[in-house]
Each structure stands twice: as structure tokens, then as C-alpha cells.
Design brief:
Number of helices: 2
Mean pLDDT: 76
Distance between the termini: 23 Å
Number of domains: 1
Largest sheet: none
Number of strands: 0
Shape: rod-shaped
Low-confidence stretches: none
Radius of gyration: 17 Å
Length: about 70
């Protein structure tokens, strides 16, 4: 019974991690689209590229924590 509960909790945790990861991928994609569409303004381009770097770093941290918490 305890192993079933542990497996269920682990599965739920994995699904939440994947959902968070997917959300971050979609946010990153949205920022890339915005960056490409606003290449006319250099200041906006610099601000968006900084946001893109931050989003990429957040995504990599999430991937790393997902790999650590759920080894294959």
C-alpha cells in the first residue's frame, strides 16, 4: 500500500514538473516570437533579449531539477 502511494505521489510530481516545464517552453517561444517581430526597435530588442536569456536559464534549471528528482 505504501509503495502504491509513493508511486502515485511520484507520478503526480512528475506530471506537475512536466506541466511547469511545458509552460516555460511556451513562454520562451512567445518571447522569441515577440523578439523576432520587434526587431525594428533596438531598445526593445535589447530588453526582450535579456528576458529571453532569463527565460532560458529558468527553463534549464527546471530541466535539471526534473532530471534530478526523477531519474530514469
Amino acid at each position: 500500500m505504501r509503495s502504491r502511494v509513493a508511486t502515485l505521489v511520484s507520478s503526480c510530481s512528475l506530471m506537475v514538473s512536466i506541466a511547469t516545464l511545458w509552460s516555460q517552453v511556451m513562454t520562451l517561444w512567445s518571447r522569441v516570437e515577440t523578439l523576432v517581430s520587434s526587431c525594428k526597435d533596438l531598445r526593445a530588442l535589447m530588453i526582450l533579449s535579456r528576458d529571453l536569456v532569463v527565460s532560458s536559464r529558468d527553463l534549464m534549471v527546471s530541466i535539471r531539477s526534473l532530471m534530478v528528482s526523477n531519474p530514469c
